[in-house]
Amino acid sequence: MSSDAVRLEIEDGVATITLNEPDSMNALSSAIVSGVADALEEAEADDDVRCLVLQGAGPAFCAGGDISGMGEGSERSQHDDVRRIVGLCEELPIRIFNFGVPTVAKVDGYCVGAGMGLALACDVVLASERSTFGLVFRNIGLSVDLTTSYLVPRLIGPQKAKEITLTGELVEGPRAEEMGLANHAYPDDEFEARADEFVETIAEGPTVALSYSMQNIDRGLDGGIRAAAERESDAQAIAKATADHLEGIEAFGEDRDPDFEGR
Length: 263
Prior knowledge:
There is one protein chain. With 263 residues, this protein is α/β, with parallel strands linked by helices. It has 2 domains: 6-203, 2-enoyl-CoA Hydratase, Chain A, domain 1; 207-253. It is built from 10 helices and 10 strands. Strands 1-2-3-5-7-10 form a 6-stranded mixed β-sheet, sandwiched between helices. A 4-stranded mixed β-sheet has the order 4-6-8-9. Helix 4 packs across helix 5 (158-167) and helix 8 (207-220) runs antiparallel to helix 9. It is globular.
């Protein structure tokens, strides 16, 4: 699937979704929102996909909401429209967060406002040193959205999350890594190569086992230890029945690297 606003490419088990409106810094236009939704559906239906990558074309990952159309219409129509648009947008990070295989955000450039919701919904965030993160909603008099009120405190703690929300502070790549907003901040000239190497490592892994691991880590933050143990037991029973588990055991016995197939 490919459109003017969003591109989907599937190669070697990696589904790459690219936000492709660089002139608007990939702000969440209706075309991007619907395009990402369609791309997620197509990628999820492809049994060969073992890793999902989300990235932006041009100078930004995503500059947040589409501000150009804000403030038009009556107060009531604005209220209804905001609820509808935000409702549609909010589904995107939820679908990414719950996606069936490991997910990676490649952030090179601006990742602010609602854009942070898309990136942080991924299991891993890889950034360039020139990348910039920020909860800049306050600058246009808005409250945080796109699940950032859920995702950001989980990564950097509630106090720091409140601070960057209250100030609208922009956080560059190296500090984003230090704070926990990004897993890695690579030098700009090494970003693509090192990010692709990271993605390749994930895509070559035991997909079923890794997917359940990601789900259980996420759920473990919201529940008690006994529930976590029960989820782990269920997931392990499924993982032990996979071809990848058998391959891992055989490779260990033969003192070689395993050749996982994602099954």
